[in-house]
Amino acid sequence: xxxxxxxxxxxxxxxxxxxxxxxxxxxxxxxxxxxxxxxxxxxxxxxxxxxxxxxxxxxxxxxxxxxxxxxxxxxxxxxxxxxxxxxxxxxxxxxxxxxxxxxxxxxxxxxxxxxxxxxxxxxxxxxxxxxxxxxxxxxxxxxxxxxxxxxxxxxxxxxxxxxxxxxxxxxxxxxxxxxxxxxxxxxxxxxxxxxxxxxxxxxxx
Length: 205
What we know:
Elements: H1 8-22, H2 24-33, H3 41-45, H4 51-81, H5 90-115, H6 118-135, H7 147-154, H8 157-171, H9 177-198
Helix pairs in contact: 1-4, 1-5, 1-8, 2-4, 2-5, 2-6, 4-5, 5-6, 5-8, 5-9
């Protein structure tokens, strides 16, 4: 089964999956405005579709592709390293990861729409994702660095996602799922709306 026994493999298996989901933002940015695909974009912008369909299709495609890849990775980690993802809490774990993927996909596209450049968006994303991952305790437990570091970590949204996941996996506790899911969904929708306001088809070529 998917088990409930806590281990170091469980901790890092889950946090590395959180990091992978955050990096979906880079995939969506690349699929949206990467230099090598711009040659074919003229066909897309002259298609009889609204601009929303252009940028949201990239968000949806990145979400679908990365969710499938990361699900396969999670299954492999469970089979090879014995990483547990909960039993009763498994549906909540899947939902949280899916919403984190949605947020990340929308973030990559929104930054491209804002800066009109995949290169600039990826530079900012690289710094932002690394900072969020470190402060959110993805690579190591920040609370070991003292009370100040712990307070900073508690203010980082990535920590909220990790905390909700650990509560589900280790305790079967669903109390954090609804607020964290609502926050991820609201942030993702806000980013999609921002892309609609910022996106110009002339920036897509």
